[in-house]
Design a protein that fits this description.
- The structure is a homodimer.
- Chain A folds into 2 domains: about 140 residues, Rossmann fold, CATH 3.40.50.720; about 200 residues, Dihydrodipicolinate Reductase, domain 2, CATH 3.30.360.
- Helices cover about 35% and strands about 20% of the residues of chain A.
- The first copy, chain A, is built from 12 helices and 14 strands.
- In chain A, the strands form 2 sheets. The first copy, chain A, has an 8-stranded mixed sheet with strand order 8-9-10-7-11-12-13-14. A 6-stranded parallel sheet of chain A has the order 3-2-1-4-5-6, sandwiched between helices.
- In chain A, helix 5 runs antiparallel to helix 11 and helix 6 runs parallel beside helix 7.
- Chains A and B meet through strand 7, strand 8, strand 9, strand 10 and strand 12 of A and strand 7, strand 8, strand 9, strand 10 and strand 12 of B.
């Protein structure tokens, strides 16, 4: 069994959160890294004994590297993914896949042309309770899926942000960053193409100039509907609805109310960028503590004809016709193992991934449709968006 | 101070639920009743010492009666309300106001022409936490209201029903019966006209042939949005989100899972009608126990710029920028006191009611827009519906 030699493009917070899963996978070896920060590269070389590259193209030219994991800011995903695929590397790229449907289509086309694997993740669509929920729905034992209700109220907009994270034209705001999760979750659960999106997305805070909240009604081609609501300006914390477990699967203390807003109020713009940077690899960022529960993306209820399924970070509550039953899910050994497994299985065993380029493209079309619908105050069908892009 | 002499039209379950508030109000006296069931009339005469009328018109011709409370099946509301107004009576009519926008417009016009008071209620728009929440929003101290999230998952469709309650053409299904509540709640909280409705309403159960679930995105003229979700087929019970308090303000035992479906499975169609009838006045129905909490209509979260407000049957949780604070609300002395007060104040003190004919008409236009939007798969503006009806 040959291990996959994986190069890392971008040693930021995303890499930190995925690192435990990368280290644990028996068939993956970290083989090199590219980042703009020499300190992060030095730390990478020291910790993993493999080279840090100051130029991405030097990493891509390294013939010992089979595949890359791209965890850079959203606006770089497209060019870096296409360059890597053309260099013959398989690619795992963080969500959102890119910042436009056209870019996503070009990435999917590059994967096809190169014959290399492209997986978009991690996202909460990989969460174990989502995978199990989708299996239960697809089994048909509860009848047809009719409605998915997804809510998430977070302090996303009040956490330290880089400038581009608050600039929609550069993939900022919660639609690209957070709706990409919620749409991945409901698409996987329902298992039907999204036929129409009617949404509101808005900026409620002039000091954080991007869409920070949305609500969207998604109609699926098979007749199901999903209602998605997200506020990144929230004061209410919907983690109370999932047993006070944080998005990353950690216990959460409700007494730490308003911490993000309090911290942000003390920071200058420069401080804010530094606070964000301090959480990255090689700059003081630390590996996440082992999480006792699975990651999650808020309250998710799947209404089928003969049961409702409530997805929790600890399992699935199945509310059936006669009885309710909790299906526990074993705690994760490390977070985000599923995305690394899906990627490794695709590259090493040629198993077709769920979250391939077409999947990411379709999710991005939904995000774009969400923003268009809000602007037009009308339904937008996301499917022609991908066709117009040549897919 | 002269007491208002109130005639009751329809001694069903609605009357039972409102009776404690009628009995407690110092300026209201029950003065007569009309019902099709002689037993109910006899019981009324015995209990209140006032006549039961076998014909509605005889009641309306009684000059000692100032006002009537109409609590009959939905399809009779329009003709009975208009007849009562033309007979010079003030009218309190149960929600839904009627079963078509045209009927509601005719009722509002009849009230205007007669110079009599018309109030539509009770509905959960009268709930004390909704009134207080609307005051907090209107105060502006939390900035603009941006988003209301309203969820209710109930077993409405599995409770014993009369035939017309499962026939949409006769005002059956959850849109007329339940969306009328949820729309009343969010309209009062937001305080802006509804400019557009995009919705899905569907029948998921061929044995209960009416719309039993919906989800709707409401856009308000002032820029706010509300997302309303209701399932009357639910297995999940959203009363868990409000501290296991029932819609009627009673403590709820989660261990009694699935009771409505189990009972219904044992009933023939004839049994089902009898089970429904058994809950009415004069047929074994009993007064509700004193409720320790306010009535409510599920999970309701109001997102303003600087706070989220969560409405509970015990008070309002205010999630502010720096702190969260629970504003307790005194328990009700009797349920539904607010609607009786609003009606009595309007009749006796000429205080303009909030929930007048125009209010009820606008809510019905939203219900109709909800059904139309679901059929057309497009936005429907409810305002022209009322204009087309001459309002």
């Amino acid at each position: 069994m040959t291990a996959l030699q994986l190069g890392v493009i971008g040693l930021g917070r995303g890499f930190m959160l995925t690192l435990p899963a990368l280290l644990r996978h028996p068939r993956i070896e970290l083989a090199g890294a590219f980042d703009l920060r020499p300190g992060a590269l030095a730390r990478f070389a020291e910790e993993f004994g493999r080279p840090g590259y100051a130029e991405m193209n030097t990493l891509l030219a390294d013939p010992t590297i089979d595949a890359v994991y791209i965890a850079t800011p959203h606006e770089y995903h497209a060019t870096q993914t296409i360059a890597a695929l053309r260099a013959g590397k398989h690619v795992l790229v963080e969500k959102p896949m890119a910042t436009t449907v056209a870019d996503c289509a070009a990435m999917a086309a590059a994967a096809r042309d190169s014959g290399r694997v492209l997986v978009v993740g991690p996202s909460h669509g990989f969460d174990e309770q989502v995978r199990r929920g989708a299996e239960l729905v697809a089994s048909g034992c509860f009848g047809s899926v009719r409605l998915v209700t997804a809510l998430n109220f977070t302090d996303f907009m009040f956490r330290p942000r880089r400038a581009e994270e608050l600039d929609s034209s550069r993939g900022g705001g919660v639609v690209y960053s957070q709706a990409a999760h919620q749409i991945d979750v409901v698409r996987r659960l329902v298992g039907q193409p999204v036929a129409s999106v009617r949404a509101m997305a808005a900026n409620w805070d002039a000091t954080r100039p991007s869409e920070g909240a949305y609500t969207a009604l998604l109609s699926f081609a098979g007749g199901a509907t999903a209602t998605l609501t997200y506020s990144g300006y929230a004061h209410y914390d919907s983690d109370e609805l999932v047993g006070w477990v944080s998005e990353l699967g950690q216990p959460k203390d409700p007494a730490r109310y308003g911490e993000a807003r309090r911290l942000l109020a003390t920071l200058s713009a420069g401080d804010e960028q530094r606070a964000k940077l301090a959480r990255t690899f090689g700059a003081g960022g630390t590996l996440p503590n082992a999480a006792p529960h699975h990651e999650h993306f808020g309250f998710i209820l799947v209404s089928c004809e003969r049961a409702d399924l409530k997805l929790l970070p600890t399992g699935i509550e199945v509310y059936g016709d006669a009885t309710r039953e909790f299906i526990p899910i074993d705690p994760p050994e490390v977070p985000r193992a599923a995305v690394i497994e899906e990627f490794a299985d695709a590259v090493l065993d040629s198993r077709p991934p769920i979250h391939d380029g077409k999947w990411g493209l379709d999710t991005m079309a939904c995000c774009t449709a969400l923003l268009q619908s809000s602007r037009l105050a009308a339904d937008v069908d996301p499917r022609p968006l991908t066709i117009a892009s040549g897919e």
